[in-house]
Amino acid sequence: MHPFLSLPWMEDYAAHCSKDAELVQSLNGFTALIEYGWLDVPNPSVYLHMRDGLPQGIMDSPAQKVNMRVYARTDIWQRIYHRDISAKKALLIHELKMNSPTAKPLTRL
User: Fold this and answer.
1) For the chain, what is the HEC assignment?
2) Residue 103: what pLDDT?
3) Span 37-62, average pLDDT
4) Is the pLDDT of residue 42 over 50?
5) CB atoms near residue 56 (< 10 Å)
6) What is the average pLDDT across 17-21?
7) 32-38 and 68-72: which strand pairing?
8) Mean pLDDT confidence for 46-62
9) Residue 31: closest CA among 60, 1, 67, 64
10) Residue 105 burial (CB count, 10 A)
11) Other CB atoms within 10 A of residue 5 CB
């Protein structure tokens, strides 16, 4: 198993999500470059490029302007990863931080 939020982990995660027809349908039309990062440790961020609801690339540095940033402390990422808390709940209780110029992605959670 790859380290959480590493490039190989994100590639596996993106491939898994691409196979979820309901998720792909709900994200139809969503295009963004998303940065996933850490609030409490200097681990590098990972970037996911989405186009029309499908992952188009994973990278360790942005090739273009980031549209959305998603950050959390290590303990919160671990709780999300182990499904002790959903990303939606973590966002609603302000443990998962999202910075986006538009609120539209919030409706897709």
Assistant:
1) CCCCCCHHHHHHHHHHHHCCHHHHHHCCCCCEEEEEEECCCCCCCEEEEEECCEEEEEECCCCCCCCEEEEECHHHHHHHHCCCCCHHHHHHCCCEEEECCCCHHHHHC
2) 44
3) 91
4) yes
5) 12
6) 88
7) parallel
8) 92
9) 67
10) 17
11) 19
Side chain identity at 8, as an amino acid letter?
A: P
What are 106's two structure tokens? Answer: 């919030």
> Cα 20 from chain centroid?
16
* Tokens linked to 84: 């002790």
Q: Mean pLDDT across the chain, nearest whole number?
A: 87
How would you classify the pairing of strands 96-99 and 46-51? unpaired
Mean pLDDT for the stretch of residues 69-91: 92
Check if the beta carbon of residue 10 is closer than 8 Å to that of residue 58: yes
**Does residue 104 surpass a pLDDT of 80?**
no
Q: Which two tokens stand for residue 103?
A: 């609120």
